[in-house]
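Justification of computing resources. Each target in the renewal requires a structure prediction run like the one illustrated here; the chain below, 253 residues long, is used simply to show the kind of job we budget for.
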Amino acid sequence: MQVLIVYAHPEPDSLTGALKDVAVRQLRADGHEVVVSDLYAAGWKASADAADFGEVAERNFMLASGEAYAAGTLAADIRAEQEKLLWADAVLLHFPLWWFSLPAILKGWVDRVFTCGFAYGAGGTAIPRYGDGILAGKRGMLVVAVGGREPSYSERGINGPIDELLFPIQHGILYYPGMDVLPPFVAHGAIRVDDARFAELAGQLRRRLAELESAEPIRYRRQAGGDYDRGLRLEPGREVPGTGGFGLHVRGR
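Resulting structure tokens:
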């Protein structure tokens, strides 16, 4: 497989950085081709603005990004990342969970790279989404370092269930343009990790990466799969019994 790792941490010797190194070594040892986008090392510009578009006539910001994409006038760094996404069979986002979300630099990567006309459409531009789209058939997975212990990110945990915290990233960023999203790899207790704990985490990550091609993705419902009405609300009776909230958008077996 061709694997793109998008890595976002300012410290190379962080747990996130160390797990990224484990992933690169293991994937290459398993015969995969790996490219790493190290956002901090590259000095990635996080703020999307009109300077990204070149000369375009459209004044609506969102539609201007689509005009620039179609015209080939997007900034060179954006075009390079889009080419990496098109090249990749699998995309891994390696990041620490900061304030219940992505680090700003990684959110900025999404804001700038997932442009109109590439990852989504608007203004009459019909681009499939939620299970279909330009990245359909590719696999996506999060590798996330979390400071708190696992119980605090459970159903009754004070921080909320980790699957719900990651839903906007997994469903709203990876699945939206079509990727098959694998269950995340979450390293809890990232504040203090001794050698024994790191060896354990590294072994767990290697085992997950060994299944990168074969693991079953999260069974999100396709927008075009017949489960939603014209207002994109789940049709009554299609929910898995006992589910609610974000869980409504995951199919049963």
